[in-house]
Amino acid sequence: MDKIVVKELDLFYGEQQALNSISIAMKERSVTALIGPSGCGKSTFLRTLNRMQDLTPGVKIIGQVKIDGQDVYAADTDVVLLRKKVGMVFQHPNPFPKSVFENVAYGPRIHGETDKKKLSEIVETSLKDAALWNEVKDRLHESALGLSGGQQQRLCIARLLAVGPEILLMDEPTSALDPISTMKIEELIAELKDKYTIIIVTHNMHQASRVSDRTAFFLSGDLIEEDITSVLFTRPAKKKTEDYISGRFG
Ligand SMILES: Nc1ncnc2c1ncn2[C@@H]1O[C@H](COP(=O)(O)OP(=O)(O)OP(=O)(O)O)[C@@H](O)[C@H]1O
User: Fold this and answer.
1) pLDDT tens-digit profile of 77-101?
2) How far apart are CA 16 and CA 3, in angstroms?
3) What is the CATH number of the domain that holds 53?
4) Does ipTM top 0.85?
5) Among 19, 35, 42, which residue has the most ligand 1 atoms within 8 Å of its CB, making it the best to mutate?
6) Helix, coil or strand: residue 98
7) Ligand 1 residue neighbourhood (C-beta within 6 Å)
8) Phi and psi at residue 81, to the nearest 5°
9) Domain hosting residue 211, numbered range
């Protein structure tokens, strides 16, 4: 079933158009990778899915984004609920300067959970689901800033999972990590897709082919081609895609 359906989406930063009539559908419980050279609009597109662009002055968006059939840009959309449902992980892990426990408990608390036992359960489950529990269970009350970069990124994922999202947006989640930490995040993505719909921006085509079911290739604000990942990388339909994946530019 389609979880996200985008139709003819244009985005302008002031006068400059950064997305040109993007149409794409993303299935529930699947991983879609967004690839393309720097500045092609991958991150911009990703941020339209949970209205992160609302925070950028001068942005104009035309077209439609529907999640579970609901128009994300409708006037009555509750943006706080939208961001609970559509969580985001960034390029650089950004845990709060608080304990491991408090990082994960933060979201549920904001959404009104006060029961200590319930909070402990949520923290444990979220850390387990983010494949971090075994590494931090004895240091839950130590600062999150003492964790390694890879652990911090998994903590940020646990922090998202704690509020019960359905869609996870990942903007180059491993670009600041070493190869082993990267591998752990990739393994985690493979596990998470049983429950969540995942969209990942990556500069790394090997990563796209390892983690995603479908890949979308962006160029200069256009969605050039979107297909099953193995098809896009072996038999692309468009010349521009072929040039990019064979390393002729970008
Ligand atoms: N806040 C902003 N204000 C103005 N222009 C912006 C803003 N953010 C991005 N842009 C422009 O929009 C275009 C797309 O940028 P975007 O960051 O989405 O590309 P990207 O494909 O994610 O690139 P990268 O891989 O380098 O992160 C670029 O031309 C960029 O300069």
Assistant:
1) 999 999 999 999 999 999 999 999 9
2) 29
3) 3.40.50.300
4) yes
5) 42
6) coil
7) 13, 18, 36, 38-44, 56, 203
8) -65, -40
9) 2-246
